[in-house]
Amino acid sequence: MAISKENRDFIDSLIDYYISESEAYTQIAENFVPEVESIPDTSFGIITGCVYSGFLQAYQNQQQTPSLEDMREFNEIMKNRAALIKKAIIEPKKAETSEEESLKDED
């Protein structure tokens, strides 16, 4: 594992935050109709970009640069959480309940 536990926890918390705020990002995406064809895909892109930006900022704050392996691991984290992000965009209230249940299962 290339990404430190601290940075991985930070990325996970960012993803959780953006899942909880997915409705706000859907509203942002709606502002781009008709330029965008898919509001859910645009929302997903905005959220992914925000998490990626936070990932890079975490490294910059530590005066580091992510390695290729770090980038691959980040992409894997995002891929593993993509379904939850999409669900939060499409079914915001159901996704919040699902996320809460999965966090309880981890405890």
Tell me about this structure.
- By secondary structure, this protein is an all-alpha fold.
- The protein has one domain (about 5-100).
- The chain is built from five helices and no strands.
- The chain has helices at about 5-20, 20-30, 40-60, 70-90, 90-105.
- Helix 1 (about 5-20) packs antiparallel against helix 3 and helix 3 (about 40-60) packs antiparallel against helix 4.
- It is elongated.
- It starts with a helix and ends with a helix.
Number of helices: 5
Question: How many domains comprise the coordinates?
Answer: 1
User: What order do the SSEs take from the amino end to the carboxyl end, as H and E?
Assistant: HHHHH
Share of helix, binned: over 70%
Query: Which class best fits the helix and strand makeup?
Result: mainly alpha
- Backbone shape: elongated
Regions with pLDDT < 50 over 5+ consecutive residues? none
Kindly, what is the distance between the CA atoms of the first and last residues, rounded to a whole number of angstroms?
A: 22 Å
| Largest sheet data | none
Number of strands: 0
The overall pLDDT average reads: 88
Q: Tell me the strand percentage band.
A: under 5%
Radius of gyration: 15 Å
